[in-house]
Amino acid sequence: MSRYVQEDVSSEEIERQRALYGPLAQSVRELADAVIRTEVDDAEIAAARAGIEAITERLRERQIAGSYGVRFNAAGEGRAWGNAVVGTRNPVAPPLKVHHDSSGRAWAEFHLGAAYEGPPGLVHGGVSALILDQMLGEAAGAGGKPGMTGTLTLRYRRGTPLGELRAEAHIDRVEGVKTYAVGHVADAEGVTVEAEGVFILPKWACRALEKQAREQQDEPPPTRFE
Ligand SMILES: CCCCC/C=C\C/C=C\C/C=C\C/C=C\CCCC(=O)SCCNC(=O)CCNC(=O)[C@H](O)C(C)(C)COP(=O)(O)OP(=O)(O)OC[C@H]1O[C@@H](n2cnc3c(N)ncnc32)[C@H](O)[C@@H]1OP(=O)(O)O
């Protein structure tokens, strides 16, 4: 089943949901950080666990059958709220608020805390890869050619300290369905990880985009999601 879902939902309703679920996910991020760092006594841990399990049960009383997917409304606004990097409703996502321009540039400033650690005090290399995969994909999408990651190559130049970071990406070149993008993660001292990747508009999406373009002749198809 496709997880690209068309929903009849107004922009106002999307904003209402963002204001409801965004802070919920943020509270759970705080919880993850607290679970890693707490030093309260054993009885407090047991009580906290019981409380968390009760809340989880409450939330599961009514839920989506599978993952959130990517949902579009009639205005073409896309919501990737379960996305592991930018998902508004995903507590695992830092989340990144990605800025774009139509020349195919994407950038974001963000904070990575204790939940993203690999080597002591440093960001896990897989987390840097996760973020750069998204950022390069966002650049490809911003330039009008979204795609699935085909190949992603990273060079870890030095450890990335946990804390305040910035990521940037831009399109290097486009060859038909293949968009080549480059980018990096940096701390205040400069670049820590560099990435290059190719993003490929899948055959199934080419067909879907052509169909969509035929249906809404003047409206460009959606190419990026928040
Ligand atoms: C309403 C429709 C909306 C459409 C939206 C479409 C996509 C949206 C996706 C993202 C949008 C934007 C923002 C999102 C931001 C973040 C991105 C995160 C992305 C991910 O987290 S994504 C998960 C990891 N990713 C995968 O899960 C890919 C699994 N894989 C496949 O889904 C297929 O494998 C695919 C699609 C890659 C190709 O399949 P295909 O059948 O369409 O095309 P085909 O095989 O014919 O290749 C065509 C040309 O690409 C070359 N090529 C093929 N594979 C290559 C590879 N791996 N590396 C380098 N080049 C490759 C060939 O050599 C040929 O090149 P040439 O023509 O020059 O010979």
Automatic annotation (TrEMBL):
EC number: 3.1.2.2
Presence of keyword Transit peptide: yes
This protein's record includes keyword Transit peptide: yes
Catalytic EC class: hydrolase
Location in the cell: Cell projection, Ruffle membrane; Cytoplasm; Membrane
Keyword annotations of the record: Apoptosis, Cell membrane, Cell projection, Cytoplasm, Fatty acid metabolism, Hydrolase, Lipid metabolism, Membrane, Transit peptide
One Pfam entry name: 4HBT
Topological category with respect to the lipid bilayer: Peripheral membrane protein
Residue ranges constituting the Thioesterase domain according to the UniProt record: 121-191
InterPro entries the record matches: HotDog_dom_sf, THEM4/THEM5_acyl-CoA_thioest, Thioestr_dom
Entry's family note: Belongs to the THEM4/THEM5 thioesterase family.
Protein name, UniProt field: Acyl-coenzyme A thioesterase THEM4
Upper taxonomic lineage: Bacteria, Bacillati, Actinomycetota, Actinomycetes, Propionibacteriales
